[in-house]
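Annotated sample (chain length 666).
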Amino acid sequence: MSHIAQNGPGKKVLLMGNEAIARGALEAGVKVCAAYPGNPSSEIIGSLAKVADEFRLHVEWSINEKVALEVAAAASLAGLRGLCAMKQNGLNVASDFLLNLNLTGSRGGLVVVVADDPSGISSSNEEDSRLYAKLGDLPLLEPAHFEEAKEMTREAFNLSERLGLPVVIRSVTRVSHARGNVTLDELPQSSPKPEFDLSRPCCAVPAVANHKILHEKLKRAKEIFTDSSFNFYRGPEKPELVVITSGSGYMYSLEAVKNLKSEERVGILKIGTTWPLPEDFLLKHLQRAENFLFIEEVDPVLENNVKEVFAQHCVDLGAKRFFGKASQAIPDVGDLNPEIVTSAIQKLLNIQYVPRPEDYRRRAYEAISDLVPPRAHIFCAGCPHRATYWAIKNALALDGRDGFTLGDIGCYSLGMGPAGFFQMKTLHAMGSGVGLACGFGQLERFGMDQPVVVVCGDSTFYHAAMPALANAHYNSASFLLLLLDNSATAMTGFQPHPGTGSTATGGPAPVIDLKAICEALGAFVEVVDPFDTEIAVETMLRLIRMERGVHPVRNSSDHCDSELSESSNHKVEKRKIISNGVRVLILKRECALVSGKRQKKLFQVEVDQERCLGEVCGCNRLCTRIFKCPGLIWDQTAGKARIDKAICNGCGVCSGICPASAIRRS
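Output written by the structure step:
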């Protein structure tokens, strides 16, 4: 049984932060849960999907975050409790709907969990999603640890129903992906019957009137937050310094104060309800000291909001000194850690503190250097993307017109570095590579003659690239889209999508065929296996050089010119599509980690030690220095390449790159 499914009030279990959020939703009686996978949020819906049948939930991986929020909101408008989860980038996608939903309000409890990614560990940015709560006048809660993650989630549903508003919970990587003890509470035994209230207005118009109502709801939230148990102070009555913190910063601050043995000098003001701020509670504690240090990830959101409150009451409060990101006491980029917080407090209080002897630090570094080899960001052994980028590199070189490749976020983002031979030149939002190609694909008329190639993953295509492809056909853009179909949302944990044939809970689902979609959107489409490198290069080169013109299309009837011919007994319709420059090459090969779980190696691969010339080979170690599959390693003792049998998955692609034909597959 899943830990989050246990009906054992009072029992302590070890949960990941995301699992604690899922458990809190179960204890609150959630019924509809939706998300698009995105680290560090993915385990929330993943955990709920595992218990969906047991608790009679609807749990889905939606096509994108906006649709996911709309699915959860529909449950709320019918009187059920709904949860939507996403990462910070996903909130950008969902914000169009969210910033209308705040005006109409909600009915059943509706919770939006956003897991931010300080330092962009698995993201294209390190955006702070708390700004959306202020922009949308939405209540915001920030858990500091695992127990609080569960408690805040449960309370967020209650708060949502009291206010008639969606409530935002903001987590961060170090809360979502760490583990700690969580005490279980009761699980509900029943839920209301869903029913849409026909008398209830569900429209954001008139906007001004609804905006006024929204502000009134936010005032009520501020009153509720004044007495919230998620806000508290710990420390001396009159400290030299008060640390004002939220979320993960609270645990870092506790550790820093303990490290410095400054419990009698430093107080910690922990704010869990970070928007709207509990003003009366805050004013009371601003009187405690003259010096305040803000500890938060990522942007100075709490810092700026507290300063706003102080500015309104500065005459009564007197002079104060604030330290944080604005004063550079705390870094204004990257994620925090106990060492950063310890250093900041140490400097402000002039405390002499050395965490460990320098000799220990040196010896530890030397030991780690010997035991842990350097590891670059590379594709997995047998990853089809490596083969794809190898083909792109060769096709563009053969074309000889300085073509370039656009892209976006996903496993294939590694194409910007040595793993993808530096072929990918842009990295922005999901699907933005295709959108950029729509623009670059219009520049022929101005004299641009460089071929435009764009890579896009299968899950990303469903999420955000389909509108851009439609736009390309509609506006006659010219480019080649390489659709990397590895049959998984691989970067975030192999979650299913509309092309995999299964749902979030493992049930069967119709496969939405990529080739058929692309043809329906007006593209000329071919499909190849990236492991057939010669064919892949040849096909890419041909499609790169393909001029605008008429191309035959099978199984397509949209946007075509028809030619009718007579046969003996019936008419036969011959269809052709006018290609105005959009070509799609689907590179279809399942993710190596997915296929490796259930099938044998495609080939047995080995390096012929007699043929391998090592350092004297004219290729200058092309196999291990450039191609860099982790299954191919350089044996320094022998001075030759060899296959790591434990890592190699037998794709056999490397057998075609060695000029001495030393790599063989059988």
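Annotation: The domain at 232-349 is CATH 3.40.50.920 (Rossmann fold).
Annotation: The chain has four domains: 3-226, 232-349, 384-595, 605-665.
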